[in-house]
Every structure is written in C-alpha cells, then in structure tokens.
Structure of Small CPxCG-related zinc finger protein:
Amino acid sequence: MDDDASYCTPPAATPPTGTGTAEPFAECVLCREPTEYPESTKGATLCPVCAWQEAGRSACSG
C-alpha cells in the first residue's frame, strides 16, 4: 500500500505567515530556511521540515 509512504514523508514546506510584526524571521539552524519564529526567539529554531525530521529521529532513537 502507498499509505506507508505518505505516513513517512514530511509535510510540504510552507512559507511562514506573518504575525503582524515587521521583524524578520529566524533562520533554521540546520538548513537556513526561514522559520515561523521571529529573529528575537531564543534557542535553536527549526523550520517545519527539519522539526518534523528531528521529531522522527528522537522518536525512533530510544
């Protein structure tokens, strides 16, 4: 079945939607694509695709 393939594929990358602020978006720490977070966000920011992949890695690593 092709259901397994759709289950394992990451979601399509979508451009971040504006939050009403003029502040630029932070870059993903892995692929340097824009994230959903403003640059003032503290910590390691990930784009939706990298966040999906990291969640899969941490779920399967234990």
In short: Strands lie at 25-27, 34-38. The longest helix spans residues 48-59. The two ends are 27 Å apart (CA to CA). Residues 24-62 form one domain.
